[in-house]
Design brief:
By secondary structure, the protein is an alpha/beta fold. It folds into two domains: 41-241, 3-Layer(aba) Sandwich (Rossmann fold), CATH 3.40.50.300; 247-452, no CATH class. The protein has 19 helices and nine strands. The protein has helices spanning 24-36, 56-73, 96-107, 113-129, 139-147, 153-164, 181-194, 208-219, 227-235, 247-256, 263-272, 277-290, 299-314, 316-322, 326-336, 342-353, 394-403, 407-419, 431-452, and strands spanning 44-49, 81-87, 168-174, 200-206, 238-241, 364-365, 370-372, 376-379, 390-391. The strands form two sheets. It has a five-stranded parallel sheet with strand order 2-3-4-1-5, sandwiched between helices. Helix 7 (181-194) links the parallel strand 3 (168-174) and strand 4. The longest helix has 22 residues, at 431-452. The radius of gyration is 28 Å and the shape is elongated.
Amino acid sequence: MNLNEKKTQYFDDEPTENSNLFKNDALSSTIKEVILDSDLPTPFAICIDGEWGEGKSSLLKSVCNKVSLDIKEDITKTDEFKVLWFNAWEYERLDPVAALLYLIQELYKDGGDKLKKTAISVGRMLFDMAIRAHTNMDLNDLETYFRDSVKGITSIKDDLQETIKKGKLIIFIDDLDRCIVEKTLEMLEALKIFLNSKNVIVVLAADIQKLERAWELRYNKLSTSGEGRDHIDKIFQLKISLPSKEEIDLKKYLEVLKSPLSPEEEKLIVIGCKNNPRKIKKIFNLLNFSKRFKSYKTHHEVTTIILWYTLGSVYHQFFKVTKDSIPSLITVLIILHQFKTFEDAKNKLDNFMHMEPGVKGQIIPLNENFRIPKDHIFHEKGDASYPDKIYIGKTALEMLSMIRIDRNLFEFLYVGAKELGIEKLTSESGNIERIFSKYKDDQVIKMEKIIQELVVIS
C-alpha cells in the first residue's frame, strides 16, 4: 500500500473514548450496574487490570461517563451521589492522597468544611509516611501507627462519612501505575486506610502486576513470595481483566485510525504490537512522519518499515541485538520461515540451543529437507548437491534464543518473513546454497537501503 495516498494524521496518547471498541460498551455497562446497585456493600473497591496501552483508561472513562449520566438522569441520585475523576500521575510531584482528599471536599463545598481541614492536615501526616520506607513496617503496623495519630485514620473516615451521609461517593482513579513506587504505595494505603469508609466506591485502572511489584520493591528481601498479591487482594473486592481483543475489534479500531495500509500490513502491526492500541498508534505516527521524507510505495518497503519500527518500539532487547546486524536478521527470518508453528519452533530450538557444537549426531531437523547443529545448517543428504555447512553466527543464535521463549515475537517475525516474500528452503539442487548466499545478500542490501533512509529512531 502506498503510504502517501492519504492525508497525514497523527495520534495522541490519550485514551480512545469510543465505548463501541473492544467490547467496552457491554463491559462498561456491566461495571456501571455493579457500582449503582443499591445492594452493593460499601466500602467497595474495583480494579480494572491491564498492561500499559491495552485500553484500561478508555474502559475506565467509559464507565465513569455512564455512571455520571445515570446519576444525572435519576433525580433521586442527583444531589446525593457524587462522582470524582482523579488522575494520580498528574499529582505525583505533590501529595496525591492530600490532593485527592482536597478534591473530595471540593465536591461537598456546602458541607465539607471539616473535611477540608482534615485534607490540609493530611499533608503534614504524609511527611511522616516517608519514614516508613526505611522502617520496613507491614500493613498491620501501618494501621496501628496511624490509628495512634489523633488526626489520623479515624478522623478522616469519620469526616468522610459525615460529609457523604446517605449518598454515595464514587471515585475513579487512573494512571496510578505510572507513578513512582512511593507515590503508588501511598495511594494504595489511602484506599485501604483513609477511604475505607461507608458509601465510598473506588474504581481504579492499573496494571496489577506493577502494583504488586511496587509493594515487593518497598520491602525488598523482607517481602515473602506472593506478599504483594496478598496486599492487593486486601484492597480490592473485585478485579476485572480487560477482554481479549479479537480480529474484528482491531479491524474496527484501525477504521477509527483511518489506516492507509493494506490488510496484510495492518495485520503485521497488530501482531507485532500484541493487540495493544497505544503501541499501534505509535507505529502509525512513525510511519506518517517517515513518509514526509520518502515515498514508500511497494508492499516490501512498507513491510520492512513496519518490521523495523515495531521491533524498535515493542521488542527492545531484540532490537538492540538486531539494529547493527541486518545479515543476521535475514538469516533468522529465513530459518523461522521453515517452521510451521511457535510450538514447532520452540521444541526444535530448545533442543538446538542445548547442543554441544561439533558433537556427531547432535543435530535438529527444521523440516524434511535439512537439519541444523549448533553453529551451522547441515543438509540431510550432505552430498555434492548440498553444502555441508552454512554459517549462522553468534548474533543470529542470540536472536533465535530470544525468539524461542517469546510467542509474540515469533509470530510477528514469522508473518513478517512471509510478507517480505522470504523463500522456503527445498530439496531442489542448489536451493539452500543459493538462498544462504546470493538470495540472502540481495535481501540484506534491500533492507539496509530502506532502513538507512529512515529518519525516525524508534
